[in-house]
Amino acid sequence: MDVQVKIVKTAIQKESVQSIRRDVFIRELNIPENIEIDANEDAATYVLAYVDKKPVGTARWRKTDSGFKLERFAVLDTFRCNGIGEEMTQFILNNLDKSQLIYLNAQSDAIGFYKKLGFVSVGIEFEEAGIQHQKMTYKKGE
Predict the structure, then answer these.
(1) Domains (range + CATH), the chain
(2) pLDDT reading at 59 higher than 90
């Protein structure tokens, strides 16, 4: 499957981001819209993953006081397990200053996925939006 990942630059692309997030987080995972659509919408940089020019996945990152936080990874159901999440993660990592801390809060069932990509678990699991999560940091190839 040929996957292309691009940084979101237009309003139409941003609408695709919102549509994917609504499908995955609000409809599938039943996360309330007021939690999913948060105060960091304008502070984040977004990516879209395309298959055959169709937007099928999205993620974002933003600068925090701690470093760069990766978040809101979502792939449409029919396109999962095709390497799209990995392509988006690698794309984002290639666009960040790795001298800074890079971290994310992985849903528990995604911990193994992120470990394969170089992230390590930090601390104990916690609940966020009714779902168990684990903080993970990117290990810079040590």
Answers:
(1) 3-138 (3.40.630.30)
(2) yes
